[in-house]
UniProtKB/TrEMBL annotation:
Transmembrane segments: none annotated. It comes from Ferrimonas sediminum. Keywords: Monooxygenase, Oxidoreductase. PANTHER family: ABM DOMAIN-CONTAINING PROTEIN, BLL5343 PROTEIN. The lineage of its organism: Bacteria, Pseudomonadati, Pseudomonadota, Gammaproteobacteria, Alteromonadales. Residues 1-93 form the ABM domain. InterPro entries: ABM_dom, Dimeric_a/b-barrel, Jasmonate_Hydroxylase-like. One of its GO terms (molecular function) is monooxygenase activity. SUPFAM superfamilies: Dimeric alpha+beta barrel. This is Heme-degrading monooxygenase HmoA.
């Protein structure tokens, strides 16, 4: 599994339009092969920073979405004016574990 962490600093005037674009993209990304889940957050430490966290089945799925996204942005060059700065991290998930309260207690005591 692959994790994609995207941090975005919108321009002063671009935040509303960026959020509208993100809502449109959500419909497309939910239909894209290989997507496991996606979440969007506003940073608690920096009110200007938005975060997107997505999980993918493979790096090929991430690459495919990235190519699709590049075509969308190329269709409307004004999309580039919405973002002041970004940081993209692509990571391989080394451990994916879950459990109930009993399991959580065991992990804390270990």
């Amino acid at each position: 599994m692959i994790t994609v962490i995207l941090e975005v600093y919108p321009t002063e005037t671009g935040k509303g339009a960026l959020m509208a674009l993100a809502s449109q993209l959500l419909e497309l990304i939910n239909e894209h092969p290989g997507l496991v889940s996606i979440e969007r957050f506003q940073s608690m430490m920096d009110e200007h920073r938005l975060l997107s966290l997505s999980f993918w089945q493979s790096i090929q799925d991430v690459d495919s979405w990235h190519q699709h996204l590049k075509r969308i942005v190329a269709e409307d060059p004004h999309h580039r004016d919405l973002i002041r700065h970004y940081r993209l991290r692509i990571c391989k998930v080394m451990l994916d574990e879950s459990g109930d309260q009993a399991r959580l207690s065991h992990l804390i005591e270990s």
